[in-house]
């Protein structure tokens, strides 16, 4: 697996933090890593984008790439149109990811918002880029109430497009999970039709980067390069 598309159920759910954890464990295993944020919206030119945030958390050995930056915090297609700038379409995303994959062991492509957010006027999405790359898609999801529906919809959209869902990762697992969060650990993989492959604790993104890197492997399952144990996690939340 040299290109992994990191998508999710929406925005502000922890895709960037999960991408940073993936990059950190891959670097720790000696793999070269690039992170591609095709369209970065809502960030001024001098500000840190998601790819920069991944490098900050995962370490300077990670290559950060961005194809376009649009200032308003909107879907890429809308933000490009309003800025009078050229949008970034799926073919361009796939091209850039494939080039990075020539030079890196792992390329992580972080989408904007959820899976079917539009990138261009033709309605191209990250799912189209994943198709062109024949790359699996990792779905990041919140922990709580409302997530089962969003994960079901995302899994259905992936299947309808013939895409492989690598699995699910909870973007921000609360210190004190409530009933919905605890039940979701059992139900999320069922509705996704894909395994739960990790949970990043809430607050992880604010850890000092060296601590983040040292701990990242504990949040991700072996399939993603870590040591997180789904059964032990499920048993702990049930008790
Ligand atoms: N596990 C976590 N620990 C600490 N902070 C988190 C965690 N998950 C998310 N956050 C915080 O929540 C906010 C949104 O997270 P993040 O940037 O990862 O979302 P996203 O899904 O990548 O959103 P976007 O669609 O904008 O890319 C950020 O300020 C981030 O620091
Ligand atoms: Mg992000």
UniProtKB/TrEMBL annotation:
CDD domains: DTBS. Keywords: ATP-binding, Biotin biosynthesis, Cytoplasm, Ligase, Magnesium, Metal-binding, Nucleotide-binding. GO terms for molecular function: ATP binding; dethiobiotin synthase activity; magnesium ion binding. It comes from the Bacteria. Its cofactor is Mg(2+). Homodimer. This is ATP-dependent dethiobiotin synthetase BioD. It comes from Streptomyces ficellus.
């Amino acid at each position: 697996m040299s290109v992994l598309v990191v998508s999710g159920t929406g925005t502000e759910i922890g895709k960037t933090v999960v991408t940073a954890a993936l990059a950190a464990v891959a670097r720790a295993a000696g793999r070269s890593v690039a992170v591609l944020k095709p369209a970065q919206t809502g960030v001024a030119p001098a500000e840190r984008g998601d790819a920069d945030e991944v490098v900050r958390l995962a370490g300077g050995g990670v290559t950060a790439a961005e194809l376009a930056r649009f200032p308003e915090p909107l879907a890429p297609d809308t933000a490009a149109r309003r800025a009078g700038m050229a949008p970034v379409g799926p073919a361009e995303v796939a091209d850039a990811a494939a080039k990075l994959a020539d030079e890196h062991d792992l390329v992580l492509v972080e989408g904007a918002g959820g899976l079917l957010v539009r990138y261009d006027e033709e309605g191209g999405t990250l799912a189209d880029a994943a198709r062109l790359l024949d790359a699996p898609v990792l779905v990041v999801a919140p922990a709580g109430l409302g997530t089962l529906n969003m994960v079901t919809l995302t899994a259905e959209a992936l299947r309808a497009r013939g895409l492989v869902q690598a699995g699910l990762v909870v973007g921000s697992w609360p210190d004190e999970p409530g009933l919905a969060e605890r039940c979701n650990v059992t139900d999320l993989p069922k509705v996704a039709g894909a395994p739960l492959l990790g949970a990043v604790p809430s607050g992880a993104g604010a850890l000092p980067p060296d601590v983040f890197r040292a701990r990242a492997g504990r949040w991700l399952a072996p399939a993603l390069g870590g040591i997180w144990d789904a059964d032990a996690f499920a048993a702990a939340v049930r008790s």
